[in-house]
Predict the structure.
Amino acid sequence: DRDEWVRNMAVEVLAKIGGEETIEPLTWALREDPDPFVRYKALVSLAEIGGDRMMGPLLQSLNDPDELIWAKAEEILQIQGGGGREQ
C-alpha cells in the first residue's frame, strides 16, 4: 500500500498476531518499507517474537540508513548479548 499509515497498521496487527507465520511479512517490511517508522515497528515486533530466524534481519538492520533503525537494532543485540554496530 502507498499509505504509510496502512502499512504501519498492518505491521501492528502482525505484531499482535505474533508467531512464526508473521516473521516473513515483518522481515519484508523491515527490509523494504521506505518509511522508517514502519521498519522500526517491524524490527521491534521481530525482536518480541524472537528466535533464530530474526537474527539475520536484526543484523542487517545495523546497516539501515536511518539511525532510528540501526540504533534500535544495536540496543536489541546488546540486550541479547550479540554485540552491535561497529564504529
